[in-house]
Design brief:
Two copies of one chain form a homodimer. Chain A is α/β, with parallel strands linked by helices. Chain A folds into two domains: about 35-125, Rossmann fold (3-Layer(aba) Sandwich); about 155-300, 3-Layer(aba) Sandwich (Rossmann fold), CATH 3.40.50.720. Chain A is about 40% helix and about 15% strand. Chain A has helices at about 15-35, 50-65, 80-90, 110-115, 130-140, 155-165, 185-195, 210-215, 255-260, 265-275, 285, 305-320, and strands at about 10, 40-45, 70, 100, 175-180, 200-205, 220-225, 240-245, 250, 275-280, 290. In chain A, helix 1 runs parallel beside helix 12 and helix 6 packs across helix 12. The interface of A and B includes residues 128, 174, 188, 195 and 199 of A.
């Protein structure tokens, strides 16, 4: 008997995102022939530097794909009621298919209430509970089947995970999938989608005992816990598919060397910036995997592409 | 070292249901002092014998607990539009806190659309996707914490499971819970609630490979697949808590003897009725469990009590 040693396959989020964007651009052109231009409104409250960068890059991508976009920038002092009015106006406008409220919002506004005020059919972030419920019940807008034909807009990060798996021909049905983390925007919806794709799904979290017992059995492991390099090589099954959702900034030189021993490119990056970005999965675990999403350039690279796809899906459902 | 042999604890659904009903009756009296009488409307379409029995028993329990109830019995020929009108009227009435559409409906009406037409705050069956989404996000109305204070009405069967576990002081947090079945009304919401109660949760289903590998590790095993005696003693961990949601009618004499060897009471019941009811878990598995819900007299006995509790919860949220 021969032991088969294979090189882990890098699941290139940037390339997959590019493919999705190309498809979305084609759909936008086709909608254009019917006189429909999908429209996205982004609400950016106050002056949070990171949020501004994200929003600018979303607006820029809209432009590239032919999606109309509008950026609303109310001041930090805006009240919940004023926000509700803003959202109501966007809900009423026929030219706006998607409404995105960039988070985090100032602490004096009621974020949950605002997210629930967005018309679910325009909820391109997939944060409305009715979309979470539909997602759990019947899969998401990108899936091929739907029990009711009702639109379930999925949150962008887990939707991106499913696109990576599907476009990389990684079998899901009948596989053992383990999700680390139970957040409302990643862990839980990822579990919902994997269950509907017929994986056997285990949701682990901070209260899980003997975590490695679960992770070592995973054919597909999704890590979304926000702890740098938490999943070590000893915790994964050789040949598994590793999906790393973590984006953690590491500023300690010894830690960086631990994650990337002898990696000159990372060392140089660290020397230049004083930090590097590391996922929740240790690079040594990637080395024994069958396939993995790198950080950066993996799941994170899909987010904006999925937002664009959701916007077009919403436009088609509303006006197509 | 001594091996501790304990007798499995029978989790008595009938007794637990009686306790819940007593509490609900007290709440109804307390609401009465504020001039509020909780009201439940039950829609029973056509003449399905089993449905009539269920509805009658729901209406009867309302009477016992002081809940106002109303039974609407449109003919089998009712259209989706006419049903929508009926539901809209009930949504508008302030004296009606809960609306229950008894299923199944005739095939010519759009069941999904009707269930989504029920005001989520009156959705005492917990079938509206917004309640499924809230349940996944933040737990259910019976739980002690809620992120938003928004009402999440949980489907009655999984809510009953949680009541059995909690009222029997069975620890959930940090335990390994395995749910067999991924239906929208039992498996998925049970998983949602167990995740929020901090169990590590695995959802298994027809596509799961090597099912026994999962079930044998379960501290809490919930079986909701509708296959008589499917979970055998070899498939469970000795001392586990077994929650049996199955209600399967067995009509074969040899099969009955296989489930209940030498059990004279069951044999007599079978001789009299030509069938007995068996859960999804084999009685031999109960024998090695730490605790289990019998069939009948387990989870099924909670359903109506939970419906009553949901009706009062809805009344308090709307008018309390």
């Amino acid at each position: 008997m021969e032991t088969k040693i294979t090189t882990p396959r890098l699941l290139d989020g940037i390339a997959i995102a590019a493919g999705i964007k190309t498809e979305v651009a084609a759909e936008v052109r086709s909608l254009g022939l019917q006189g429909v231009t999908p429209g996205l409104a982004v609400i950016l409250v106050g002056n949070v530097a990171a949020s501004e960068i994200y929003v600018r890059s979303k607006v820029k991508t809209c432009g590239e794909l032919g999606i109309y976009s509008e950026m609303l920038t109310p001041p930090d002092s805006i009240t919940t009621d004023e926000m509700l009015e803003l959202i109501a106006k966007l809900n009423d406008r026929n030219d706006i298919d998607g409404i995105l409220i960039q988070l985090p919002l100032p602490s004096h506004v009621d974020t949950r209430r605002l997210l629930e005020a967005v018309d679910p059919s325009k909820d391109v972030d997939g944060f409305h509970p009715i979309n979470a419920g539909r997602l759990l019940a019947e899969g998401y807008s990108g899936s091929t089947s739907s029990k009711s034909g009702k639109l379930a807009l999925a949150p962008c990060t887990p939707a991106g995970i499913m696109e990576i798996l599907r476009r990389s021909d990684i079998e899901i049905a009948g596989k053992n999938a383990v999700v680390l983390g139970r957040s409302d925007i990643v862990g839980k919806p990822a579990a919902s989608m994997l269950i509907n794709a017929s994986a056997t799904v285990t949701v682990c979290h901070s209260r899980t005992k003997d975590l490695a017992k679960y992770t070592r059995e995973a054919d597909i492991l999704v890590a979304a816990i926000g702890r740098p390099g938490f999943v070590t090589a000893e915790m994964v099954k050789p040949g598994a598919t590793l999906i790393d959702v973590g984006i953690n900034r590491v500023t300690d030189a010894a830690e960086v060397e631990g994650f990337f021993p002898g990696n000159e490119a990372r060392a140089a990056l660290f020397a230049k910036r004083g930090s590097v970005v590391v996922g929740d999965i240790h690079p040594a675990a990637f080395a024994i995997s069958g396939a993995y999403t790198p950080v950066p350039g993996g799941v994170g690279a899909l987010t904006i592409a999925m937002l664009m796809q959701n916007t077009v899906t919403a436009a088609k459902a509303r006006r197509g």
